[in-house]
Amino acid sequence: MELQVNGVTLSYDCCGSGTPLLLLHGNGESRAIFDKAIPLLAPSFTVYAIDTRGHGESSPVDEYHYRDMAEDIIAFIRALDLQKPVLYGFSDGGIVALLVGILAPDLPAKIVASGANISPRGLEPDFLRNAKREWRKTKQPLLHLMLTEPHIGRTALAKIRVPVFLTAGEHDIVLRAHTLRIALAVPFCSVRILAGETHESYIVHSETIARILLDDLT
């Protein structure tokens, strides 16, 4: 399915029944990463798996900004008249979900974010060094995005009115102290650090994230 918002076309899948649950993928990915999770979630939720702008089957763009992606999701929710959806985002998708909570605090019912950061400085130094080296060679816009954004302050996070649940892997590329910093700034927030997991190991083509969501939301 496709939906026109903010001058771009967003491609998405919809299945299941119940409370709307939006799934937002990470940098350079597509909704395909949730292929193992969706069958487990669909009996309990109406699942909307969305390709963000410039990703998957959605419209290409020349440059990327997290705020643009968040405004797309806000427009998506309003265009489909989704009532109090739950937002789940992984990595860049988690950043987008938090921004939706900041920009439209009355729109979602809850936000769950995995491996999200609010500043590039929240990422592991070795990962940043490698990303900078790769960007110098390739000039890829998506690398530029993660190296220069986001910049979300405590005042902005304090605007989120709904419950937030943060997850991160024990061996995540997001620094644990950074995840805890986000949790302290959001008014109603809980955190789970998953033992033995990396940034993406429990999410990409994995059933584990579905079980985590079901445990938290049902």
Question: What this model shows, in words?
Answer:
By secondary structure, the protein is α/β, with parallel strands linked by helices. The protein has eight helices and eight strands. Helix 2 (66-79) packs across helix 3 (92-103) and helix 4 runs antiparallel to helix 5 (141-148). 35% of the residues lie in helices and 24% in strands. The longest helix has 14 residues, at 66-79. It has helices spanning 38-41, 66-79, 92-103, 125-138, 141-148, 154-157, 176-185, 208-217; strands at residues 2-5, 8-16, 19-24, 45-50, 86-90, 110-114, 164-171, 189-198. The chain is globular.
Helix content: 25-40%
* CATH superfamily membership: Alpha/Beta hydrolase fold, catalytic domain
Q: In which order are the strands of the major sheet placed?
A: 1-2-4-3-5-6-7-8
Q: What is the rounded Rg?
A: 16 Å
Largest beta sheet, briefly?
8 strands, mixed
Total beta strand runs: 8
Q: Can you tell me the number of structural domains?
A: 1
CATH T-level fold name: Rossmann fold
DSSP strand content: 15-25%
Oligomer: single chain
CATH architecture designation: 3-Layer(aba) Sandwich
Task: Name the CATH class.
Answer: Alpha Beta
The stretches of 5 or more residues where confidence is low (pLDDT under 50) are none
Mean of all residue-level pLDDT scores: 98
Calculate the terminal CA-CA distance, rounded to whole Å: 27 Å
